[in-house]
Amino acid sequence: MWICSASGIHGVRALRDGQLDKATLQSKFQGKKSLLEKVLQEFSRSVQEMLPEMRSALDSRDWSALEHMAHTLKGNAALIGANRVVNLALALEQASVQEDAPYLDSWLPELEREAWSALRELRQFVENL
Amino acid sequence: MSKYCILYIDDDGMSREVIGAFLRESGYEVVLAANGPEGLDSFASHVPDVVLLDLRMPGMDGFQVLERIRAENQGVPVLVISGVGDMQDVIKAMRFGATNYVIKSLDNLSVLNDALDMAVRNLELAREKQQAQDMLARALQENEFYRTQLESIFDSLPDGILTVDVQGNVLRFNHSINSNCHFDAGLVPGQPLHELRQHKEGQCCLRLLEYTLRENRQVLNHRVECPCLQDEQRVSLATTVPLRDEQGVVTGATLIVRDISRQEKLEEELQERRQFRNIIGKSPAMQQVYAMIRKLANVDSTVLITGESGTGKEGVMEALHYAGHRSGGPLCRVNCSALSEELLDSELFGHVKGAFTGAYKDKTGRFETAHKGTIFLDEIGECSLRIQLKLLRVLETKSFERVGSSKTISVDVRIISATNADLDRKISQGLFREDLYYRLKVLNIFVPPLREHKEDIPLLVDHFCQHFSREFQKEILGVSNQVMNILFSYDWPGNVRELKHAMEHGCLLSPGGEVFVEHLPRELIEYSNAGHLNQSSDKPRKVTRKDLEQALAQAEGNKLRAAQLLGIHRKTLYRKLHKLGLPLK
Question: Is-contact B572 B514, C-beta < 8 A?
C-alpha cells in the first residue's frame, strides 16, 4: 500500500508498505536483547501516552502541544526505524505549526493506526528474538 | 581508549534511555539531563568531554543551552541531535557554535558513534595541541628568563664586551665597554668599526678586534695602555676572540676589555718597583726617581734632569714622555754640546732659504717638529749665551722665529733638559744665564750615581745578562761570586752606562754559563788585581745538597733569599737544584 500527503507542503513522501525496518533493527541491536526490550518498553509507553494526548490537543486546538508531541513521536519512531510513523508525525508537526486543522483531522487517525501497528510489529520482533 | 564523558541533554525520555544505553554500550560514560537547566548544572559539575544536545525542548531550548555553554567554554565539542526534517534548526545551531549534528534515527545510531569518535579525536588533538602550546610557552618563558638573566649579567660585568659581525658592524655591547674604552658618544648597533676608528677612543682595542676579524685569530690578555684620556693613564687587558657558528664558520668577533688601572696603581703603591719602563733598580734612591716620574709625567712643566754622566738621564726623560699624555706626540732629542752655535740655532729653530750661506732651502727646526710632544735638550749646560737667550724666550712665550725670518711661530712643546754640568758654578762663572736656569729647573729630577745605589747592581747584572744573552744568542746565567764582589766594590765613575759596557764585554767573552773575572774589561781586572777587594777563589763554590736544603729551609722556600744565603746567583741555585734532583717548587 502507498500513501501520499494530502498536501505537498507537509512533505509526506510516498512510503513503502510495512512498518519497521527490521533488517536495520536486527543489525543495530544484535546481541542487545535487553536494550531492545527497553526500546519496546519506552516506545509502548510513548504510544500509549502520547496518542490520546495528541487527540485531546487536536480537539482543544492546542497547536503548540500537538506540535511538540508530534515532534517527540517522530523522534521515537525514528529510533526504531518506523519510517511511516516518522513521516506522518513530521507531516502533523508541520501542519500543527500552520494550524492546519482539516489536515490534522484527516491524518491523525492514520498516524494512530500506523503507530499502533508499529508497536505491534516491534513487540512481535522482540518476542521472536 | 580512556572513558570519555558524554553529557546528553534531551527532554524525550525514550531518546535519553535508548541513545544513553547505546552510548554506554559503545564505551562512553554518559550523564543524562532531561532539560536545559539540568543540563547546564551537569555541565558545570561533571565537566564532560562532549555534549550531545537536543534542540527542541520545552522551557530553555537547545539553542539557549548552547549559547550558555559557549559563553563558558569555547573548546568543548557540542553535537546537536535533531529530528527528521529539522534542517533549519541544525543550520541555526551551527551558527550558535555547534561542532557537528546528527539526525535522530535508527540508521544514524552508528553515524552518532562516528560523530562522537571524531569529536573525541579532535578533542585529543586539541588537548595535545594545547599541551604542546603550553610546553612551548613554558620553554619560551624559561628562555626569556635566562635571556633576561644573561643580559643582566652581561650588563653588570665590569669587563667591557663588544661583538661585531664579519663586516665589522657592531652587534651587541654592554655598558662597561663605553666606560672602559671611553666611547663617550655611545655605541650604536650596526655602527661600522671604521666609523669608530675616526675617534681616538678605544683605538688600541679596535685594532685588535680588526686583527682578529682579518686573521681569524684570538688575542689573549693583551696589555693596552690607553692614551685616550688626558688626565689619567688607563691600563687594560684586551682579549679578542673569533665568533663561530655551529659549523665553525667565523661570524664575527668579540672584544673583552678589562680595566686593570686600579690594580696596577695598587701594585705600584704596594710593591717596591724593580723597574720603571727602561730604568732598572729597586733601591730607595731609584724609588724616589720613579715617584718623581709618576708625579711629573702628566704635567707640562719644564723638567731639568741632573746627574752624573751615564746615570740614565735619557731613560728618565723617555719615561716622562711615554708615561704622560704626550706619548702619542713626537719626542725630539737635541744634544746641545754636539753642534756649533750656528748649527744648533738652525737645528733648534729652523731657518728660511737664504738665511745664511748654505741655506739652500727652508728647514723646520726641532721645536716645530716637537709640536704637541716633547723636546729633550741634552747637555743644556753647553749652550752658548745667545742660544740660552733664545731658549729663555721660547720658555716664556712658547714662540720663536726661524733663523732669517721675522715670522713668529707658536708651538705647544714640553721641554725636558738634562745636564751633568754644575750649573751653579757655570752661573757664577757667567757661562750660564741664571734666569734660564730657574726656568729650566722648575722641576728637578736627580738621578743618583750608581755608587749610591749599589744594591741595584745584582738586578742590573741580571737584566744585562738577559739582554746580552738575547743579543749574542748565548745563555749567560750570571756572574761568578768574585765578579760580583768586584762589581760591588768598584766605584763606577761611568755609572750604569759603564756597568752595561762591562757586562757587554763580559757576556761577549764568556762562552756561556757564568761570567768570570777574566771576561771583564781590563780596567776592572786591574782594579781587582790592585787588591781593592777580598781575594777569594773564583772557582764556583762547592754547594752540597745539605747546604741547599738548609738554605731553602732558612729562607722558607724563597729561592732568591736562599741563593743570597749561599752567596750564589739565583740561576746557579736553580741549576744545582735540578742537578741534585731536588724539587724546584
Answer: yes
Query: Residue B201 to residues B24, B179, B186, B196: CA-CA distances in angstroms?
Result: 82, 10, 11, 8
Instruction: Tell me what pLDDT residue B232 has.
Output: 59
Strands (DSSP E) found in B420-496: 443-446, 476-479
Summary count for chain A: helices (H), strands (E):
5, 0
Determine the average pLDDT of the residues in B549-557: 79
CA B443 to chain centre: 35
Q: Does B107 touch chain A (CB under 8 A)?
A: yes
Give the residue from A48, A72, A85, A126 with the most B CB atoms within 10 Å of its CB, the best one to mutate: A72
Q: Give the distance from CA B26 to its chain's centroid.
A: 74
- Within the 35-94 window of chain B, which residues sit less than 8 Å (CB to CB) from chain A? 56, 58, 83-85
Asked if residue B94 lies in contact with residue B100, where contact means CB atoms within 8 angstroms, the answer is no
Contact present, B290 and B273 (Cβ < 8 Å): yes
| Mean pLDDT calculated for residue range B227-241 | 73
Position B95 scores a pLDDT of 92
Q: Alpha-carbon dihedral of residues B40, B41, B46, B48, nearest 10 degrees?
A: -10
C-alpha cell at B436: 734660564
CB-based contact B357:B349 (threshold 8 Å)? no
Query: CB within 8 A of A108, min separation 6: which ones?
Result: A54, A55, A58, A92
Rounded Cα distance, B261 and B188, in Å: 26
**AA identity, residue B278:** N
Tens of pLDDT along B2-57? 589 999 999 999 999 889 988 998 899 999 999 999 999 999 999 899 999 999 89
Among B313, B311, B221, B205, smallest CA distance to B255 is for B205
Report the pLDDT averaged over residues B388-405: 92
User: How near does any CA of chain B get to the CA of A24, in Å?
Assistant: 7
**pLDDT value for A12:** 41
- Model confidence over B243-255: pLDDT tens digits? 999 888 999 999 9
Residue where the block lists cell 501520499: A4
**Residue B209, C-alpha cell as written in the block:** 678586534
- Report the alpha-carbon distance of residue B210 to residue B190 in Å, rounded: 16
| pTM over 0.90, yes/no | no
**Running DSSP on this structure, what letter comes out for residue B252?**
E
C-alpha–C-alpha distance, residues B185 and A97, integer Å: 84
- The predicted-structure confidence for B288-306, as pLDDT tens digits, reads as follows 998 899 888 888 899 999 9
Could you tell me if B110 lies within 8 Å of chain A, comparing CB atoms?
Answer: yes
Over 60: is that where the pLDDT of A1 sits?
Answer: no
ipTM above 0.85, yes or no: no
Phi-psi region at B252: left, alpha or beta (left = phi > 0; alpha = psi -120 to 50): left
Kindly compute the dihedral angle of the four CA atoms of residues B95, B100, B105, B110, in this order, to the nearest 10 degrees: 180
